[in-house]
């Protein structure tokens, strides 16, 4: 069960030199505590939609869930803000830390254990996908068209995963990591291979976002915003094509440009 991702509230607005009563729409912020095998694993501050996908994608990207068949059950109790996950294997063999972790929705180093397991879970891409410049532009246009709640609130990150043609799945969340985890969880749930897929993202490509893409396993990430220097270094190292500033029919390719080809049959 999902709660509303946004709500309308009465506010006072200053406009044209006057203060007046008005109504505004803003996003819901929801703490979800993930319990794994009866123990508290993390609390994720998120938008309360697609929460099962979020939990699956988060656990997989953090290395707690390595294969779908390791998942015995997952139950979301959104009335109390808990996700109860049962795995076939203990986490003690995979993680040395045992204290509660708060996963914030803000930007920057929001994860305490950000560097601890990246080497084990961030994969060098083996993707063979190639896409045309027009597909790059079309995917970004489609993401922006799907971002209806963002247009109302300005308070969400939007992301999508696509094959460049018929497959396109969109998710949104107050946390940029969460939006990507939801997409990853969707693919895990539905047994959709991710290697030859493309991530489309509304925000800047930071090193954290680039590593998240590597953990998911895609070979291409697209953004309408800018990358950081460390993100581009990692993109070169991890064999990921990073494309930014996709605006007004133009874009920049920062790493592994060989995946962007003009030929219409480039995906063959």
TrEMBL record:
GO biological process: Mo-molybdopterin cofactor biosynthetic process
Localization per Swiss-Prot or TrEMBL: Cytoplasm
Pfam family, one: FdhD-NarQ
UniProt xrefs under InterPro entries: Cytidine_deaminase-like (IPR016193), FdhD (IPR003786)
Keyword Chaperone: no
GO molecular function, one term: sulfurtransferase activity
Keyword terms: Cytoplasm, Molybdenum cofactor biosynthesis, Transferase
Keyword Cytoplasm: yes
Catalytic center residues: 107 (cysteine persulfide intermediate)
One cellular component term from this protein's GO annotations in UniProt: cytoplasm
Family (UniProt): Belongs to the FdhD family.
Chain's role: Required for formate dehydrogenase (FDH) activity. Acts as a sulfur carrier protein that transfers sulfur from IscS to the molybdenum cofactor prior to its insertion into FDH.
HAMAP family: FdhD
Protein name as annotated: Sulfur carrier protein FdhD
Organism: Staphylococcus warneri
């Amino acid at each position: 069960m999902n709660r509303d991702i946004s709500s309308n509230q009465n506010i006072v607005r200053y406009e044209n030199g006057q203060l007046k009563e008005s109504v505004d729409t803003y996003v819901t912020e929801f703490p979800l505590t993930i319990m794994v095998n009866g123990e508290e694993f993390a609390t994720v501050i998120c938008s309360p939609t697609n929460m099962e996908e979020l939990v699956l994608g988060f656990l997989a990207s953090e290395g707690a869930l390595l294969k779908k068949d390791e998942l015995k059950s997952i139950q979301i109790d959104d009335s109390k803000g808990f996700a109860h996950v049962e795995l076939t294997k203990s986490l003690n063999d995979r993680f040395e830390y045992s204290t509660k972790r708060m996963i914030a929705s803000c930007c920057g180093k929001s994860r305490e254990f950000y560097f601890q397991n990246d080497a084990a879970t961030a994969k060098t891409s083996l993707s063979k996908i190639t896409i045309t410049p027009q597909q790059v532009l079309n995917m970004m246009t489609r993401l922006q068209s799907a971002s209806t709640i963002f247009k109302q609130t300005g308070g969400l990150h939007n992301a999508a995963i696509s094959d460049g043609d018929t497959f396109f799945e969109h998710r949104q969340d107050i946390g940029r990591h969460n939006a990507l985890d939801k997409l990853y969880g969707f693919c895990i749930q539905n047994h959709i291979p991710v290697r030859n897929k493309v991530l489309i993202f509304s925000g800047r490509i930071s090193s954290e976002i680039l590593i998240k893409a590597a953990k998911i396993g895609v070979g291409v990430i697209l953004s309408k915003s800018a990358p950081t220097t460390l993100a581009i270094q990692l993109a070169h190292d991890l064999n990921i094509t990073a494309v930014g500033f996709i605006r007004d029919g133009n874009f920049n390719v920062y790493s592994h440009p060989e995946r962007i080809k003009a030929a219409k049959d480039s995906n063959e």
